[in-house]
Amino acid sequence: MSSISTQDGGFAILGTSFSNISGDKKENNLGGSDLWLICLSENGEELWQKTLGTKSNDEASAIVQSTDLGFFVAGNINDNRKLFGSKDVFVSKLDKDGKLKQTTILGGTALDEVTDMIPTPDGGAVLLAYSTSGKTDNLNNTDNSTTQNTHSNTQNENTTPEITSTVKIFIGKSEENFGSGDYWIIKLDKNVNVEWQKTYGGSGDDRPKTIANTQNGFIVVGESRSQSSGNKKENIKEGTDLWVINLDKSGNEIWQKSYNFGNRDVAMSLDVIKKTNKDNFSENRGFLLGGYTQAEEKIKSDDEKFWMLYIDTNGKEEWRKYVEGKSKKNEERLVSAKLQSDGSYLLAGTSADQLGEENWKILKLGDKQLDDLVENKDIRIYPNPVEDYAYVEIGFELQNGEEAEIRLHDMSGKQVQVIKTKQAVTKINTSSLPQGVYIVTANTSNKSVNTKIVKK
């Protein structure tokens, strides 16, 4: 299951469904399981829903919203004998109202599985996959085993859904694998066409976890069991090590680094740390990684731990921090690790002597080094750049029901909008504004803060 906040303040929820029309579900499944996408307003009311899939068993993996307010939806096709391998990847592009535009199916000779997906500033997306596959050819676009559900969501439960073929592109993996498992990175344009694909790995098993945009391209984080081989340049030290690759916008390597905490190291999260320069534009200042380490054979008191690692933009380690587990606790599993706006780091996971006996373990860490990573801003705008709506977040507390006044001025100084609010977050309508740069100012009786917003 995956969920995101949409740019208009609502939510999009993606999951796997085995259900036909019943209850709240308005479209029949196409196979054993399909992807079920629901788009909600900021008040939690359903705007639309869509069932996506093939005649095989499909599982939901990731969803992101593109710059045109549409959605990229990614999933895996299981038990498929008519396409590329034992498990393939598909990515569908939908417009902002849920209309399916195109589907691209990707795969190699064996198993390929989505681990993450991010939107890119050019309106496309980057897909990150774990691949055990070798190179394979593209398939014929007329394969009828991959029909998609494109009927209207206004049908009643007694109506048989219309199932028609949509535009589908079949793209095989373009490079051979290096080992038993590799990082497979695919850049898609705004129409889900493949711009490039790259494979990174050594002779062992390398598993990607997450990817993020940087100023110059992308950063990929995962785990490696490979020694120096293939296009991996450093040996592992013990068990599995973290393997981080920095790529340019074409997917070519800028640098790669390995990091070790001892035993089996597992990456779970990645935060790109940004600071605003004097021209009010963000610059990357480094990357904060979160994860956990598990003992595999030997057990020591510090073998089981949650950790965080801060590296600069060149991969140089600045510092690491961790929380040790109790002696002989075999199951310390981090689920999420996030840098908070107050300068703390929130770690959430489970702890147990053995599987099936887990208890939740939640830690909040904070010190001066974490404080230094957090940009303290009294006013924030998102999304920025903006199309129709933006949110103004005031970072200081309004006292005793005090009212703030939010004003928008164009670059000539002309006031184009004014809003009064008592809320920390206020929605503003920018749909009627011409393209350009505007100044947003929040005023109270004793404070005034401002920032810039770009209207696309």
Overall description:
1% of the residues lie in helices and 52% in strands. The chain contains one helix and 33 strands. A hairpin with a 5-residue loop joins strand 22 and strand 23. By secondary structure, the protein is an all-beta fold. The protein has one helix at 368-373; strands spanning 2-5, 11-17, 34-40, 46-52, 57-65, 71-78, 87-94, 100-107, 112-119, 125-131, 148-149, 163-164, 168-172, 182-188, 194-200, 206-213, 217-224, 241-248, 253-259, 264-276, 282-294, 305-311, 317-324, 331-339, 345-352, 359-365, 379-382, 389-394, 404-410, 415-421, 425-429, 436-443, 448-455.
Instruction: Compute the number of structural domains.
Output: 2
Taking Cα atoms only, what radius of gyration do you get, to the nearest Å? 24 Å
Named CATH architecture of the largest domain: 6 Propeller
How much helical structure, as a percent, in the residues?
Answer: under 10%
Give the termini separation: 32 Å
Would you report the number of β strands?
33
Kindly report the average pLDDT value.
Answer: 83
Strand content: over 45%
Lateral strand order in the biggest sheet = 5-6-7-8-13
Assembly annotation: single chain
Low-confidence stretches: 142-165
CATH topology of the largest domain, by name, is Neuraminidase
Number of helical regions: 1
Largest sheet: 5 strands, mixed
Structural class: mainly beta
The CATH first-level class of the largest domain comes to Mainly Beta
The backbone outline, from C-alpha atoms, is globular
Domain Secretion system C-terminal sorting: 381-454
Biased composition (Low complexity): 137-160
Protein name: T9SS C-terminal target domain-containing protein
Keywords: Signal
